[in-house]
Structures are given as structure tokens and as C-alpha cells.
């Protein structure tokens, strides 16, 4: 089952790497303001769509091996749900809005498509599980280092996730920064968890 844990770690870290590089090299895309999901729009949108689906599947595959590796069931279920929510985020794209792709009005659309609403629901699950999963790990893992480390990550991602929601509603120019901080903290920790299970 160890190869599945390695796949889970790869999916966690690859997701971060792809959206960071794609966002920094995408013409007219503003990583500080625009969300990661907006990368699934436009001519190069296939790259982030693939990133959502492939990395979500890798994380879900890794979750299959976690019960045996960690001796716990609730934590792997949370990890699997997070992976599947990432897959759903790729299957259902957000609507063009807030100036991206280029030529899109700078405001939110008056009405959102059903696909956008499903994307929003998937995103809500992702940003709920990013802090909830390490919180579960606080009680599921016996190592003091992992208990304290997971607690710190749970608190940090909870604060960042809440701040992201508020900044998104205000269309803050720093919405993308806070969203990326949330994702990087949560998925970097998750990748380390998979390797911990493989050790």
C-alpha cells in the first residue's frame, strides 16, 4: 500500500506547484486577486482542470492506504472527501467573473450558472476540510510532534479559510493571496502526512 501513500503525497504537492507556476505565467491573470479556480478558464484552462481532477484522484487513492498506515478510519475518510471535492472542483468550473478571462466584466455576474453553483459547493467542502482534516489528526495521531504540528496547521488554515471567505465577498485585491496561503498550508501538511504513513 506504500505506493498509494506516495501517490497521495505527490498529488498534494503537485497541485500546489502547478497552480503557482500557472498563475505566475498566465497572461492577464492576477494571482494576488484572482482565485485558483479561475485558472480553469480561458485557453489554458485545461491545465488547472487537469490539476484539480488528477491531483484530487491521487489524494483519494492515497487515502485508501491511510487506515492501515495510521490505524484510524475517520482521518482517511476526511482525506478522501477532500480529494473528491478537488475532483468535483475540476469537473464543475466557475463562471468567468471579476475581469478574468480578459474581456470579462469586472463585477460578479447577475446570475450564476448551475455549474458555478456546484463548483461553489465543492469549494466549500475543500475549505472546510483543509482545517478539519488536521484537526482530526490532532486526536488520531499518537506522536506529540504530529499532534502539535497538526493543531497549528488546523488553527492557521481555519483562520486563513475564514479570512478568504470575507475577502472574497468584498472582492479584495488580496483574495488570491489568502486563498493560496490556505491551500498551501493544508496540502503541504497533507503531503507530509502521507509520507509519515509510508515511513
Structural features, described:
There is one protein chain. The protein has 6 helices and no strands. By secondary structure, the protein is an all-alpha fold. α1 (2-25) packs antiparallel against α6 (175-198) and α3 packs antiparallel against α4. The model has no long low-confidence stretch (mean pLDDT 96). Helices cover 73% and strands 0% of the residues. It is globular. The chain has one domain (2-100, 114-198). The longest helix is centred in the middle third of the chain and has 27 residues, at 114-140.
Task: Name a few traits of the molecule.
199 residues; mainly alpha; 6 helices
* Terminal Cα span: 12 Å
**What's the total count of β strands?**
0
Q: How many structural domains?
A: 1
- Radius of gyration based on Cα positions: 17 Å
Average of per-residue pLDDT values: 96
Please give the count of helices.
6
The coarse silhouette is globular
- Strand % is under 5%
Structural category: mainly alpha
Helical coverage, percent range: over 70%
Quaternary structure = single chain
Tell me about the biggest sheet?
A: none
* Unreliable runs: none
Give the topology string: H per helix, E per strand: HHHHHH
Amino acid at each position: 500500500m506504500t505506493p498509494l501513500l506516495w501517490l497521495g503525497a505527490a498529488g498534494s504537492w503537485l497541485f500546489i506547484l502547478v497552480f503557482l507556476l500557472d498563475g505566475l505565467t498566465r497572461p492577464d491573470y492576477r494571482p494576488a486577486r484572482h482565485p485558483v479556480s479561475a485558472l480553469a478558464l480561458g485557453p489554458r484552462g485545461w491545465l488547472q482542470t487537469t490539476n484539480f481532477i488528477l491531483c484530487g484522484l491521487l489524494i483519494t487513492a492515497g487515502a485508501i492506504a491511510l487506515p492501515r498506515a495510521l490505524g484510524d478510519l475517520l482521518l482517511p475518510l476526511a482525506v478522501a472527501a477532500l480529494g473528491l471535492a478537488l475532483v468535483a472542483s475540476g469537473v464543475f468550473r466557475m463562471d468567468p467573473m471579476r475581469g478574468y478571462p480578459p474581456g470579462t466584466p469586472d463585477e460578479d455576474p447577475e446570475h450564476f450558472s448551475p455549474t458555478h453553483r456546484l463548483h461553489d459547493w465543492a469549494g466549500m467542502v475543500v475549505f472546510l476540510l483543509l482545517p478539519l482534516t488536521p484537526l482530526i489528526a490532532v486526536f488520531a495521531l499518537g506522536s506529540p510532534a504530529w499532534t502539535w504540528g497538526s493543531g497549528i496547521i488546523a488553527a492557521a488554515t481555519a483562520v486563513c479559510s475564514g479570512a478568504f471567505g470575507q475577502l472574497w465577498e468584498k472582492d479584495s485585491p488580496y483574495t488570491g493571496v489568502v486563498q493560496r496561503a490556505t491551500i498551501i498550508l493544508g496540502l503541504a501538511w497533507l503531503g507530509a502526512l502521507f509520507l509519515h504513513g509510508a515511513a
